[in-house]
Design goal:
Blueprint (H helix, E strand, L loop, with lengths): L2 E6 L3 H12 L4 E7 L2 H11 L3 E5 L7 H9 L10 E6 L5 H9 L3 E4 L4 H12 L7 H12 L17 H11 L4 H8 L3 H14 L5 H10 L9
Parallel strand pairs: 1-2, 1-3, 3-4, 4-5
Helix pairs in contact: 2-3, 3-4, 7-9, 7-10, 8-9
Length: 224
């Protein structure tokens, strides 16, 4: 199956470079690009991409607002693409808010070409792009901003003890394979638990699961 992608960035050279790189892949089809968030939203609603590569800082409408509009569409709009945020900095306040809004992760613009190609495939497959080297620190820093730690969310009460354990390990940045090894379970069993956690908590993907785990009080900043 071909992955349809659009690129939203205010720098023409970035759009052209990313488009050329991705279009050279047999399983990726670049179906359009836009110079700002507003046009990016309009284009997405027209061509229905699987993945939107979204720059964080742009004129007219920034990537955060555009991501919100794509991931929380108005009544009557059913298409919701996966959104992968692009940023120049490894720590960016907008990235935190984008993850909360439902973005599937973020990628540094200076990442190696292979990382960009892999990121598109990972996000299209429904996974979150949460690089342990950067994202654990980002999410922990973000979650630490509310002064007192909140009481555990009542939504956690709907999870079984095993599902709660799996959610906690997701929040610590572990992959399904690592969770399986730690809990001595089959990887397919872990995938099943992850799916149930997302469904019960009405979360789109692992990125939102990480944010929820911190915000709900299940995991405290610094524990990861």
């Amino acid at each position: 199956m071909t992955i349809k992608v659009i690129i939203v960035d205010d720098q023409a050279m970035v759009r052209a470079g990313f488009a050329a790189l991705l279009a050279a892949q047999p399983d990726i089809d670049v179906v359009g690009d836009a110079p700002d968030g507003r046009q990016g939203v309009e284009l997405s609603r027209t061509v229905h991409p699987d993945v939107v590569l979204m720059d964080v800082r742009m004129p007219e409408m920034d990537g955060l607002e555009a991501a919100r509009r794509l991931l929380e569409p108005p009544p009557g709009v059913v298409h919701r693409p996966k959104v992968l945020m692009l940023t120049t900095f490894d720590v960016d306040d907008y990235v935190y808010e984008a993850l909360r809004a439902g973005a599937s992760g973020f990628l540094l613009k200076d990442a190696p070409p292979a990382d960009l190609i892999s990121a598109v495939r990972v996000v299209a497959a429904g996974e979150a792009l949460l690089a342990p080297s950067v994202t654990r620190r980002l999410i922990a820093d973000f979650a630490g901003r509310p002064a007192p730690r909140r009481q555990r969310s009542v939504r956690l009460n709907g999870l079984t003890p095993r599902e709660t354990e799996v959610l906690e390990l997701i929040a610590r940045g572990l992959s399904n394979q690592e969770i399986a090894a730690k809990l001595v379970l089959a990887e397919q069993t872990v995938k099943t638990h992850v799916g149930r956690v997302l469904a019960k908590l009405s979360l789109r993907d692992r990125a939102q699961a990480v944010v929820f785990a911190y915000e709900s009080g299940l995991v405290a900043p610094g524990e990861a």
